[in-house]
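Retro notes - structure team

What went well: the batch runner handled both jobs without manual restarts.
What didn't: labels got mixed up in the shared folder, which is why I'm recording both outputs here explicitly, each with its sequence directly above its tokens.

Job 1
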Amino acid sequence: MIQAFVALANSLVDQFDVVDLLDGLTADCAHLLEVDAAGLLLADRRGVLHVVAASSERTRNLELFQLQREQGPCLDCYHTGQAVAVADLREEHGRWPRFATAAVDAGFVAVHALPMRLRDSVLGTLGLFSARVGVLSDDDLNLGQALAHVASVALVHQRAAADRGAVNEQLQAALVSRVVLEQAKGFLAQRGGLDTDEAFRRLRRYARDHNARLTHVARSVVSRELPAQRVLDYSAARHRRVAEP
């Protein structure tokens, strides 16, 4: 838990990769809270929500489904600015018929949606998904909301808090970076015969081991400046080194 807050706090004073930060947030939530997965939606300058981070491809697909069908707890959370807690989605078919069915089919039966806000502006939502029936404890909810709050501040920077135009620019940059990252993941997955979760792990490890920004590495892969095979070969070599006695 301390490491999660340290990473977010450091982003307030250091240069940081926004996509890497938000992906780390979803991974931290899945690890620290009593949930199995997390996803994060951010709104663009027109107020349209996009998936910018998820702890797994399954979660990302469910968040995309929610946006495409225009129904679900995360959308309600964004529009009202209030947290949404659902202990058992199987009892919510009347409320979100398509989303509830899709979530249960994906293995999730409980969901919590927490607002990401900056003052009076709702920037997006943090979705927490569980394979077990029940609501989160107050401690877990408070921790999840605290992580979302700190990430919101890190995302737009305190110096941009009073300038809505600057906030929009920050959010738009995050959305564009996410598109590039998805392209790089797909390219690596196809080239290496991997699933997209594994492709992302290899891309992120390459970036961290080379002290490079994740979006910069992703952009280099997409532009062919960094050969995809180099990233794949690096991952294989690193795995061999770790496995050696």
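Job 2
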Amino acid sequence: MGATENERVVRICLPEVILEGNLAVKEGQPVVVFAHDSGSSRHSPRNRFVAHALHEAGIGTLLFDLLTEEEDMDYERRLDIGLLTVRLEKVTRWLKQQPGGLMAKIGYFGASTGAAAALKAAADLTKDIGAVVSRGGRPDLAGDALGRVEAPTLLTVGGLDDTTIQLNREAYRMMRGIKELKIVPGATHLLEEPGTLEEVARLAVTWFRKYLASPSSIIPTFLKSDKNKLR
């Protein structure tokens, strides 16, 4: 997926580092912040595919790099859930400070280890986060924070990803708020099979429409077509 018409590159200046991101939001829209998996970036084609679906449904997005290029070369930093959580929380506060940001409804979309950071951040920023979606995530890595998550949370896992399914089921049992676990039939961890990423995007759009945006917003037409596969 290419750049969205109103998408712009932003530099998020934190006390300890400057992170780069892609912000696409119109006035009055809710915003979904993406927390990608280790070793990935804001240019991830899978996350951009989901972001495009959200744009079509009238929901803004912020995709940003949790780590700088130099930091990302350190494998231990990629797996430092505490660091990733702190970064996500600081970026969320930055977003709230942008024009119109204080009124915006915010959601998190986390992938793999990024899902754990999203859930921990949602537990800490209870009043700010309206919904969370995990794609093939590791919510179990959020530990005790799972019991403090109040935001409605959707966990999506590939039906052929047995290990991740079990880890998600364990995390699901620890969660107390509104929650749902969806198994995508015929999908492996990376959702490389035809139609599986579209299904995750459809589930994410439906979830965020329900808890962040108006339920009357339109479901993107391209999600209804089997012709639009991730290349």
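One thing worth noting from job 2: The beta strands are 8-13, 18-24, 31-35, 60-64, 106-111, 129-135, 153-158, 179-184.
We'll revisit the folder naming next retro.
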